[in-house]
Design brief:
Blueprint: E1 2-5, H1 8-13, E2 22-26, E3 31-32, E4 35-38, E5 44-47, E6 50-51, E7 63-67, E8 72-75
Antiparallel strand pairs: 1-2, 3-6, 4-5, 5-7, 7-8
Length: about 80
């Protein structure tokens, strides 16, 4: 699943104009309705949400980090 980041703070970290989109790598776990928090070191913490397919009423107890320097997602502790 390709993810597009649309956060103005992330866009600024990527040397783009605020409000622009960039194609990133694949998430470790496909999810929707998750949170995305910009960390002080420029990475983005993506947590929670639900599974993409047949996930009505389910929540994911996982998180991952997106690193704009490498355009990669890595799993973190739950």
């Amino acid at each position: 699943m390709k993810v597009r980041l649309a956060f103005s703070l992330v866009a600024e970290c990527l040397a783009q104009s605020p409000g622009t989109f960039s194609v990133a790598g694949n998430m470790v776990t496909p999810r929707f309705l998750h949170t995305a928090t910009l960390l002080q070191d420029g990475r983005v913490l993506i947590a929670g949400g639900g599974p993409r397919i047949n996930g009505a009423g389910c929540s994911l107890a996982s998180a991952e980090l997106y690193d704009s320097a490498t355009s990669m997602f890595t799993a973190t502790a739950t």
